[in-house]
Structures are given as C-alpha cells and as structure tokens.
C-alpha cells in the first residue's frame, strides 16, 4: 500500500461532541452553576451576576448565518481586540461575546456595528429568523430560505435592535413542508399546491418503489406500469402535495416554479412559560414564491407583527395573544382571509374545532 | 475566470442586514486561492440560475469518509456542465462543543483548515445543531475531516442514525439552569457514536438538553429524547427584592403580568407587596422567574424531566414529546448512568420495533404509550398524561393486579420518604 493510500485509510477518532468547558470564558467556568440573576441593560446586552459577586456581560449580534471565512475572521478579530476571545452561537445563529468588564461593552458594540453586524435580538425583540439552506445547498428546496431571511431581516431590522414587542418573537423559514426551520411565533414555509410531476423514464432506475409507496402519508402512491416501464402513479385527488415522496424519489418533482407557494403559520412556542408548548397554525397561504426579495411574504409578516405589537399585552407571545383575543379577531386585525383550508381535517384535527358556546362578538 | 452575471441575487446585497451573497462574492473576488474563486463563482452562477427558474439543482448521492457511513451531506449539481467548479459541493456536519462555546482561536483554526480544503463557507449552526462546512469536493472531504478530526472535532449524524445533539448556554451563564446540561449532552450523545457514524436505525434520533422549562433548545417539539432541567422543592423568593420590584412597576403591573399569568393560579400578592407561592401546584412554567429573575429563583432540589417522541411533520404529523420520566435527580454517578440507560433502552426498543422511516414518537403513537413503557421497563405515572382515557373502548381484565402495583409503589415511596 502506498503512503498516500495508507493516509486515506486513517481510522477516525470517534470523540463525539467536544467538551465546551475548554472554550468557556474563565469567569463562566469559575461561576458554573452559581449564577444568581441577570439584567438587560439595553437591547443586545445581558449582564449575569454570580453569587461570588462577579459578573459577565454578553453582547449579542446578528450575522448573515452563512459565513465566509473572511467574515468569520472579522468576528474573531473583534473578539480578540474588543472582547476576551470567547464567543458562542445562539440557537438562532447569533454570535455572542462574553466579557468580564462592563467597560468593554460599548467599544465592542461600536466595533460590531462598524463592521455591519447588528447588535440586538435579546428579550422582547424580533429575533433572528432560524432557517434552512434553500437553493444554495438543499436537494429538495422549494425556495431559498437564506434569501427570504436576508430580505425579511432588512425590513425587520429595527425590531431586532429594539425591544418594542410585547414579548420575544421567533421567526422561522423552511424551504419545504418538512419544516427544518422548526416551530415559530411566525413561520414562513413553502406550501406545494400541485401533485408531483413524475418522470416515468427514471423512476425504476432511481427509486426504491416500495419505500416511496410507504412514505406517502395518505397512501396516494401505487406501483404502476407506465409506457411499458415499471413506475409509480399518484392518485391526484388524494395527494396532499406534501412532497414526502420527492426525497426518496427525485423523479417525482414536487417543486414548481409557479405552484410552489409560501404559507405563513403563527403561534408556535417551544417554551413552557404561561402555557404548554404549542404548534404553529396556518394563517395565510398562496403567497407567491417571489425571488429575489419576496415582498408579498414580508408584507404579511409585517402586518401580523404590527397587529401583535399594537394589541398584545406585555409578556404575551403570539400564541398567548391569539388565545386571549380569539381567531376571528386575529383575522380581522391582520386583514387576512379565513378560508376552508384553515379548518384542520388531519387525524386528531377534530380537537381543533370549537366545541363550546364560546363565541366572541 | 469569467464571472457569472448575477442580477437577481445581487439584489440581496442591498439593505442593512449582513448579506450572505456579499460574503460569497468576497470569496470569489478576494480570496488568494484560485480554486476558491472559481468554486464560489460557479456556486453564485448556479444560485442565480435557481433564482431565475425558481428551482433547486442539487441532488444527493453517497459520500463518506473512511470508517464512517454518515456525517456528510453529498451534493452533486444537476447543472454541473454549466457550473463545473462547484459541481461537487458536499456539506460536512461537524458536532459543536456542548453549549456552542468557542474561542476565537478554535474558530480561526477551523477556518484555516476549511479554506485549505473547502469552499470557505460555514454556518454556525444547522437546524440540528451541527457546524455546517458547506462546499467540499468528494476528494477534499476526507482531507478536511482528517485535518480537523486530529484536532478533536468529529462528524455529526446524517441519515437514519443518532443525530448531533444540542444543549443550551446552561449553567455556564444562566441562573435558570437546573442541571449540568453539557454533561448530559455529551454523556448521552457520545455514548452512541457507533449509532451516529454508521447509520442503521429506523430513522433519525435526536437528543436535546435544556436547563429549564423555558426549553431554549426546543427539545419538546424537536427532539426524540428531550432532557429538561427542573426542580421539585419551592421557588426561592427574595421577598425584599420582590417588594422593590412591586414598588418600581406598581401593583397593577405585578397583578396583570405575574399573578394572573400563572397557569395554575399559584401566586398571591400579599398586602405588604410580598408574595405567596402555592409550590405544590406550581408546574415550573418559568413565567414568574422570567419576569423577576432578581427575586425568584429555581429551588435547590434539582433534576430533570425526560420526554420522548418529539418530531416535526413527516410522516404522520407533528408530535410533541411525552413525559416518560417526570423527575429524576442527576447527582450521583449512578443517576447519570441511569440517564444513559434510559436512552439505550429507548433506542434499542425503537430499533427493534419501528417500521422503516418511523420516528420514535410515531412508533409510540402506533403501538400505544403503555407498550412502549413496558418495553423500556418504566412504570406508568399520572404525570405522563394530560388527562386519563376518554374513550370507553378499553379492556380492563387485570385491573386489580394493576391497582395493587400502584398501591405497592405508593407504600414504597412512603417508606423511603
């Protein structure tokens, strides 16, 4: 075996998830598990006080999430020059710098803003949109989540760097109905509206047909001979256009330049605060998937946000607010149409119906 | 190198939010390596083509590193003839440190390795929690992995396997923390490296660890096994601080925003502006602690609640996790061992009983929670349900035996108390 080939055969070291302690700010390591309370002196800044009397200041900034190495190094340069060299990333891909001294906070914020990063995203702000890859990298994307997010955050930037919302607002986007972006107070997701278009010449070579049949949530796919070739056919009346057949069988093309639309969902909340976690609910569909800046989707998101900002009480998340005011009022305030498609007919959907005399007038 | 015209995605360079398109262009225009200039140029070309035609052009395939079966998301371009330099553009999923902590030094080190082998594009983090190194040729994949694996980084999961786990900022900074999140994260996931690196499970399996019921890691909604820090003694109240808060915000604010928001009406504001909490009926929702973190703190008798079976839409619809362990301490070594054992038993039972492509929560939905509990040897508990059965279609043949079990358990609990 040549030296090169031997190198290729290097056995991996299966270390798994690295220990975070080695990268933790010494003040945080020292006070691990000994934090007493925190304050929020301004948007994008948190200060945590330890029982020992020590404090740690955090500055949070929004980035473009898909980082080029230059941007990553700029973030590191700022960390070395203005912070203590310790950072972390939030679940919504914001970067956080932790410093021991309060005096470092203002120069750090200045340095971040000078380089174009956006300080904010804490507490009752509109947080950075958590999102998926989209056309840049995904194999089944109906849109470009990264582009939607950039275009939308341009418009929501003031809500990111201020704390004017009743409570925090988590936005998510997803490029297909698998919804990798996850649950959000407002979710902007692709909604396919037409059954897959099947390239029957390719199916038998590319797809394991029984697995594809098994993937369909509504049993709408069955094996068939088409033009003398083994393929699959879709009962188009049954099909819910979810796209689940596309990943195991790419010849069943679900993405459609015209008929893949955006839909907006609200009220997803992962926290247990005040009420149990909740899933998001459909409020708008049929929104054009309109690159490069998706203005129609952004307009609806802004409408929902402004109704929430205006009408919700302090500490109400979007789901809490709607729970209080009711869905008729939500549709009235946001001027969105309520249609037959809002009524859930999936298994268990009956529990989403109003089985009471509770009606608001 | 002829640069592709990109009028549509150029529009994403406008506006105040940082632009990922400008970042990719920096790699195209100013990186000293021609390989990166050309690769990112063709990437931009293909992305522009997607914007024009509103379609994606990547397809999967099989790419791995020696010794592993997963961890790479292979991407081959369907329009590679037009954009040859980015026709192989795989992503390496790399596991982050628990809590997503980094030093600038560690990030620079990763950046150095990555630009030697890959496109220079990276994301912290993907939705499962991985560092996503986006854009490697098939050949470079092994070289980049060799490079960073020697420095302590390991691939995450892709395919039907245990996936990369996530934990919150945790006890490192947060006063709401009730557990060593990072220890739980690493103990759990690192125990399953074989199940992560050599995908052979029915489908994906995710662990997420949140230090308190605010559940910043979205574990109930997104994790097959969710571990959430909690406590079972009283909320600690600093009455003097609370009174100061009432004085600052006013009684009306406190009543409207704290007292009446408690989901179990467990809070009462006293005439002297101190508060009483009915701790037995507190469900640890976190709301009052979130509002007045200076005055209200989690108790001292800390532990975790474990939920199993959360997932997103595919195939049967969204499912949240279900409480399997209402409370367990994580103090002694044997407690931690038990945590891992619960995970092992869950994954073993699921691997044996799930259908292909069936998540753990879907299996539980199909076979019923009781069959799952019996499979992993955990007794039923009223904390596992929102309410008891509503359907009268049930056989209760062994009712007396089951009732005896319940009383015996209750006696045992009384004896040990």
Description:
The complex is a heterodimer of chains A (361) and B (417). Chain A is built from ten helices and 15 strands. By secondary structure, chain A is of the alpha+beta class. Chain A folds into three domains: 97 residues, Alpha-Beta Plaits, CATH 3.30.70; 147 residues, 2-Layer Sandwich (Sulfite Reductase Hemoprotein, domain 1); 57 residues, Alpha-Beta Plaits. In chain A, strand 1 and strand 2 form a beta hairpin. In chain A, helix 3 packs antiparallel against helix 4. Chain A starts with a helix and ends in a 27-residue tail after the last helix. The mean pLDDT of chain A is 95. Chain B is an alpha+beta fold. Chain B has 15 helices and 16 strands. In chain B, strands 8-9-10-15-16 form a five-stranded mixed sheet. A four-stranded antiparallel sheet of chain B has the order 2-4-7-6. In chain B, helix 4 packs antiparallel against helix 5 and helix 9 packs across helix 10. The radius of gyration of chain B is 26 Å and the shape is globular. At the A-B interface, strand 1, strand 3, strand 4, helix 3 and strand 5 of A face helix 2, helix 3, strand 1, strand 5 and helix 4 of B. Strand 5 of chain A pairs antiparallel with strand 5 of chain B, so a sheet runs across the interface.
Distance between the termini of chain B: 76 Å
Shape of chain A: globular
CATH superfamily of the largest domain in chain A: Sulfite Reductase Hemoprotein, domain 1
Strand content of chain A: 15-25%
> CATH top level of the largest domain in chain B?
Alpha Beta
Tell me which CATH architecture of the largest domain in chain A applies here.
Answer: 2-Layer Sandwich
In CATH's first tier, which class of the largest domain in chain A applies? Alpha Beta
* Mean of all residue-level pLDDT scores of chain B: 97
**Number of contiguous helices of chain B:** 15
In percent, how much strand structure appears in the residues of chain B? Answer: 5-15%
Q: What class do helices, strands and sheet pairing of chain A give?
A: alpha+beta
Query: Got a strand count of chain A?
Result: 15
C-alpha end-to-end distance of chain A = 82 Å
Which oligomerization state do the chains in this entry correspond to?
Answer: heterodimer
Q: Report the largest inter-chain contact.
A: A-B, 121 and 132 residues
Supply Rg of chain B: 26 Å
In CATH terms, what is the architecture of the largest domain in chain B?
A: 2-Layer Sandwich
Q: What structural category characterises the helix and strand content of chain B? A: alpha+beta
Q: Can you give the helix content of chain B as a percent range?
A: 25-40%
Strand order of the largest sheet of chain B: 8-9-10-15-16
């Amino acid at each position: 075996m040549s030296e090169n080939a031997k190198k290729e055969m290097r056995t991996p070291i299966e270390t798994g998830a690295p220990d975070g302690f080695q990268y933790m700010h010494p003040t945080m390591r020292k006070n691990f598990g000994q934090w007493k309370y925190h304050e929020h002196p301004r948007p994008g800044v948190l200060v945590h006080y330890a029982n020992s009397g020590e404090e740690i200041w955090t500055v949070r900034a929004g980035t473009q999430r898909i980082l080029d190495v230059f941007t990553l190094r700029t973030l590191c340069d700022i960390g070395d020059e203005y912070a203590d060299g310790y950072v972390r990333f939030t679940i919504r891909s914001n970067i956080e710098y932790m410093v021991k001294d309060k005096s470092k906070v203002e120069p750090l914020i200045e340095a971040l803003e000078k380089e174009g990063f956006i300080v904010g995203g804490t507490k009752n702000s509109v947080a950075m949109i958590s999102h998926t890859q989209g056309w840049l990298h995904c194999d089944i994307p109906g849109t470009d989540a990264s582009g939607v997010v950039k275009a939308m955050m341009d418009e929501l930037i003031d809500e990111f760097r201020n704390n004017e919302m009743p409570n925090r607002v988590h936005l998510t986007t997803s490029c297909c109905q698998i919804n990798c972006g996850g649950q959000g107070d407002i979710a902007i997701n692709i909604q396919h509206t037409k059954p897959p278009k099947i390239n029957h010449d390719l199916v038998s070579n590319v797809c394991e047909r029984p697995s594809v049949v098994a993937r369909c949530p509504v049993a709408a796919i069955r094996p068939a001979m088409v033009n003398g070739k083994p393929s699959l056919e879709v009962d188009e009346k049954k099909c819910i256009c979810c796209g689940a057949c596309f990943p195991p069988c790419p010849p069943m093309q679900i993405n459609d330049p015209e008929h893949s639309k955006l839909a907006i969902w609200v009220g997803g909340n992962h926290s247990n605060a005040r009420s149990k976690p909740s899933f998001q609910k459909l409020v708008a569909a049929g929104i054009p998937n309109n690159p490069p800046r998706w203005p129609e989707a952004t307009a609806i998101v802004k409408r929902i946000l402004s109704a929430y900002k205006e009408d919700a009480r302090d500490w109400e998340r979007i789901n809490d607010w709607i729970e209080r005011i009711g869905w008729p009022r939500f549709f009235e305030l946001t001027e969105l149409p309520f249609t037959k498609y809002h009524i859930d007919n999936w298994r268990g959907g009956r529990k989403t119906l109003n089985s009471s005399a509770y009606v608001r007038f | 190198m002829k640069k592709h015209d990109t009028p549509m995605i150029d529009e994403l360079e406008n506006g105040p939010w940082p632009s990922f398109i400008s970042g990719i262009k920096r790699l195209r225009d100013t990186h000293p390596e021609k390989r990166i200039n050309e690769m990112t140029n063709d990437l931009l070309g293909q992305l522009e083509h997607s914007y024009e035609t509103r379609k994606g052009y990547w397809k999967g395939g099989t790419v791995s590193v020696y010794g592993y079966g997963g961890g790479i998301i292979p991407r081959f371009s369907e329009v590679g003839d037009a954009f040859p330099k980015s026709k192989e553009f795989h992503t390496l999923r790399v596991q982050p440190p628990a809590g997503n902590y980094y030093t600038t030094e560690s990030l620079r080190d990763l950046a150095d390795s990555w630009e030697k082998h890959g496109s220079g594009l990276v994301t912290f983090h993907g939705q499962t929690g991985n560092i996503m190194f986006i854009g490697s040729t098939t050949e470079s994949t092994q070289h980049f992995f060799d490079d960073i694996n020697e420095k302590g980084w390991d691939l995450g999961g892709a395919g039907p396997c245990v996936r990369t786990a996530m934990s919150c900022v945790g006890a490192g900074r947060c006063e709401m923390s009730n557990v060593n999140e990072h220890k739980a994260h690493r103990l759990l996931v690192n125990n399953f490296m074989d199940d992560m690196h050599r995908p052979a499970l029915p489908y994906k399996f995710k662990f997420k660890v949140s230090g308190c019921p605010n559940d910043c890691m979205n574990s109930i909604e997104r994790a097959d096994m969710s571990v959430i820090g909690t406590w079972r003694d009283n909320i600690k109240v600093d009455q003097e601080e609370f009174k100061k808060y009432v004085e600052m915000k006013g009684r009306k604010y406190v009543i409207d925003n704290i007292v009446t928001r408690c989901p179990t009406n467990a809070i009462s504001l006293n005439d002297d502006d101190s508060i009483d909490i009915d701790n037995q009926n507190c469900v640890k929702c976190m709301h009052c602690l979130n509002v007045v973190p200076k005055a209200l703190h989690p108790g001292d008798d800390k532990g975790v609640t474990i939920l199993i079976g959360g997932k997103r839409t595919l195939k049967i619809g969204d499912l949240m996790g279900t409480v399997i362990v209402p409370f367990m301490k994580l103090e002694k070594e044997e407690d931690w061992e038990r945590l891992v054992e619960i995970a092992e038993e869950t994954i073993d039972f699921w691997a044996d009983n799930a259908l292909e492509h069936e998540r753990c929560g879907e299996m539980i939905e199909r076979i019923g929670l009781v069959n799952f509990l019996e499979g992993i040897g955990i007794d039923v508990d009223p904390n596992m349900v929102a309410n008891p059965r509503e359907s009268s279609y049930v056989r209760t043949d062994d009712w007396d035996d089951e009732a005896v079990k319940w009383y015996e358990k209750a006696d045992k609990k009384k004896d040990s108390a």
